[in-house]
Specification:
By secondary structure, the chain is of the alpha+beta class. The chain contains six helices and nine strands. The protein has a single domain (35-163, 171-183), classed as Glutaredoxin, CATH 3.40.30.10. The protein has helices at 17-21, 51-55, 73-88, 109-118, 132-141, 175-183, and strands at residues 5-8, 28-34, 40-43, 48-50, 61-66, 96-101, 125-129, 155-159, 165-170.
Length: 188
């Protein structure tokens, strides 16, 4: 199967968002189209779900990759996601957050439930796991694949409802960074 990734770059989009805002955050922002593979994954409740349907929400979607035993990048990104949802308060349900575990051997639905509880996540945040092959297909489709989970990059993806293009954020982002990106989405 041929992988199709389209990168839509405009000079202003390839520089850090924060640099355009006079802020000090360090991340890279681009916009890209990704072909979401038609894989079946398992959520934190043990329910099998099709990834394209999960990501085809009628609201903005925020996607990231993590593994629960990570002690460096993943907890920082997960704390930012949790903080964003807390800051949104009653409007948190207007955003769908999907985190895909890249360590399918360890991150079982039970482990994912504990991770979700650790970050005080509500129903708007879904954690997914699956077979190594299916997770690798998703990682490759989003240009996030690495053969060693310890070397995975901090990546966050954000998409407007009904839009095909994703904002790809490379680097550690704060709650205020995520909020600015979320507010900057072109929403219907």
């Amino acid at each position: 199967m041929r992988r199709r990734v389209f990168i839509l770059c405009v000079a202003a989009l390839s520089v850090p968002w924060a640099a355009r805002q006079g802020d000090s955050a360090q991340y890279r922002r681009t916009v890209a189209l990704y072909d979401v593979p038609n894989v079946s994954l398992v959520n934190q409740d043990g329910n099998r779900v099709r990834l394209p349907q999960v990501l085809a929400a009628d609201k903005p979607v925020l996607l990231d990759f993590f593994f629960s035993s990570c002690t460096t990048v993943c907890p920082v990104l997960s704390a930012a996601l949790s903080g964003l949802l807390k800051e949104l308060g009653p409007r948190a349900g207007e955003l769908r957050v999907v985190s895909i575990a890249i360590d399918s051997d360890h991150d079982t639905p039970e482990v994912l439930r504990g991770y979700k509880k650790r970050f005080e996540a509500g129903s708007e945040w879904e954690l997914l796991t699956g077979s190594r092959d299916d997770i690798d297909r998703v990682l490759k489709a989003f240009g996030a694949y690495t053969s060693n989970k310890l070397t995975h990059s901090p990546l966050t993806f954000l998409r407007s409802a009904g839009d095909r293009s994703w904002v790809r954020i490379e680097g550690l982002v704060s709650v205020s960074d995520l909020m600015a990106e979320y507010r900057g989405l072109n929403r219907p």
